[in-house]
Each structure stands twice: as structure tokens, then as C-alpha cells.
Amino acid sequence: MSISSQLLFFFSALGAFNGLLLAVYLLFFLRPARLSNRLLGFLLLALSVRIGKSVFLFFHADLALVFLQLGLTACFFIGPLLWAYLKAARDGLEKMPTAWWIGFGTLALIILGIGWWRPYTTYPAFWRGGFIRYGIYNVWAIGLLAGGWVLLPVIRQQKWSTIEIWWINIFFGNLIVHLAYRYGVYTSYIVGALTFSCVFYLLALWFFLQRREAGFLVAERPKYGDKRIGEKEARDLLARCNAVMEKERRYLDPSFKLADLAAAAGSTPHQVSQLLNDNLDQSFAGYLRAFRIRHAQSQILTEEHLTLEAIGEEAGFGSKSTFYAAFREVTGTTPAQYRKAALENLRADS
């Protein structure tokens, strides 16, 4: 292998290798685990296996066909995993919905069933032909479309938070890799792997530059050691935080952040975060969500002329889906069911 070929192999394989390492870290070592980070780990795993297969096939054409089937099987899940990651991250889901288990289980049965029925070792023409082009890549494309739909309310916002920029970067990075593979026939097969390496390290560089604000990939509960806030100080700070939320109703602002609460309460984001975690066993997101849901419940009971979407927007939620997911998580029911039950109780009392 010439020096140029060695360099090409190195750079094309580098992204897949490091993506695999990051996937293992997100899946098995990051604590406490979040659903969104686990899904991101599976997404990286699927991409890395797919990219790794491309690299080795390009430089070692005699690669065992079973590994080619493994790479294409992983590719089948990239689009659905992208959608699931964006949905879980945007809506703050903490548990995998039953419908998702059924959906991914169905996809697994489909691709494994096809692999058993038409294994690559026996039917290579089947895998290299229309099944890849119209089957596997179209599932990836559908996942991209669904992921774009999830991000549409975010993209329409006038201002994006750091985590929202991260979601958008993940989406467009995935789109670029997909297009590189989709139209690689007009360039070179290795372009997809090189594109993934470029995208992976550009995202890594962005994350490094934003690391102080990019807490969405680290443990939700920060480690403070033995530096707990004193009881009186904690009580006073909590009272100030609650006053900001209850009297000023700052939670109605969709862009309200931890730093805003800390500034209004005369403290620091680190100390407020510690207070909420140690004294309320809550993250800032959970604390903020609770106020917004209580406000929405009050509006549902008293403002019958308002639509549920309008109530969610007025309560500070950026989208209908975010509002519905948060409402169900906090109350165990949907806004529509909550309103229906309230009206039935009102008729029964009258």
C-alpha cells in the first residue's frame, strides 16, 4: 500500500474508530445514564459499524461477506435512531416509550429476517442491488425526514440555545454523511467514510469550544463532594428562587435558563444547580417544568376558551409536542384528558 493510500486509510478509518469509542462510553460508562445519550450512543455505534465496513471493503475487497451484511444491517437503524435521539432530547424523555420498543423490535425482525432469508454470502447481488438503494437507504432517508420534522419548531425559533445548536449539528452532519453515501457512485465509495471523519471531528471541535455550556452530555447531577450548602443558606436561596418563579413568573419565558434564575436570585448557576439537586432532588429542567405544568393546569381549568396548544405556548413550552410530553410525564395524563376530567367533575358537582 502506497503512502497516499495509507494516509487515505488512516483518515477514513479514524472517524469510525473514535466514533466507536465514544459510542461505548455513552452506552456503558456515562453516569447517570440518560435516554437521549444512550440513543446517541446507539446512533454512533450504527454509523461507526457502517463506516468501518466501507473503509475495509474499499481497501480489502476480499472482506468476508458476513461483515458486509453486518455493516448494512447497522445502516438500517441509522435513520430511526437519529429520529429517536432528537425526539428524546427535545422532549426530555427519560424512559423509552413502549411504541418505540415495538418499532425498533419490528425493524430488527425485518432486517434480521431478510438477512436469514437472503444472506449476503449466498445472495450478494440482492444486497448490492435494489435492496440497499431502495430499502436500507430509504429507511435512513425517512429517519432524516422525521428528524427534520422534530427539529422544525426549534429551527423556527429566533434564538437557539447551545443544546439546540448541538441537535441541529447532529442532524445536518447525519444528512451530509447520508448524501455522501447516496451519491458516492458519482465520486468514490470512500467519500462517505471521509465525510463522516470530517463531520465527527468538526462536531468534536465545536463541543470542545462550547464545553462549559455543553452540560447535556455529562451527568445531570453534578458532583459537589462534601461542599453542601448550609441549611439556612439553602432555605434562603430556595425562597428567593421560588419567589422569582411564583411572583415574577419568569418560567413563562421560553428562553428562561438556569443562569437567568441564578442572576435573579442573587446567586450563581453552580450554586442554584447544587441547591436543586441536593435539596429538591431535581434538575433545573425538572424544577422549571413543574412550574410550567402547574400554570398550564390552572389555565386548563379556568380558561376554557383557550386551545391546549395556546395554553402550552403561554406556559413557556416551545412546541406542542414538548408540552404534551412534559404534561404526561408530570401528571400521568394528557392535557386533553385532564380538561375532559375537569369538565366531567364540574358537571357532576352542578
Question: CA-to-CA gap between the ends?
Answer: 86 Å
On the 0 to 100 scale, the average pLDDT is: 81
Low-confidence stretches: 212-216, 218-226
Judging by the overall fold, what is the CATH architecture of the largest domain? Up-down Bundle
Task: Please report the total strand number as a whole number.
Answer: 0
Give the helix level as a range of percent: over 70%
Shape: elongated
Number of helices: 15
**Topology pattern, helix = H, strand = E:** HHHHHHHHHHHHHHH
- Name the structural class: mainly alpha
Strand content: under 5%
CATH topology of the largest domain: Rhopdopsin 7-helix transmembrane proteins
Q: What profile does the largest beta sheet have? A: none
CATH class of the largest domain: Mainly Alpha
The gyration radius over C-alpha positions equals 24 Å
Number of separate domains: 3
What does this structure look like?
By secondary structure, this protein is mostly helical. It folds into 3 domains: 3-217, Rhopdopsin 7-helix transmembrane proteins; 227-282; 299-350. It has helices at 3-28, 35-59, 65-75, 78-91, 98-117, 124-155, 162-182, 191-209, 231-246, 258-264, 269-279, 284-302, 308-314, 320-331, 335-349. Helix 2 packs antiparallel against helix 4 (78-91), helix 4 (78-91) runs antiparallel to helix 7 and helix 6 runs antiparallel to helix 7. The chain is elongated.
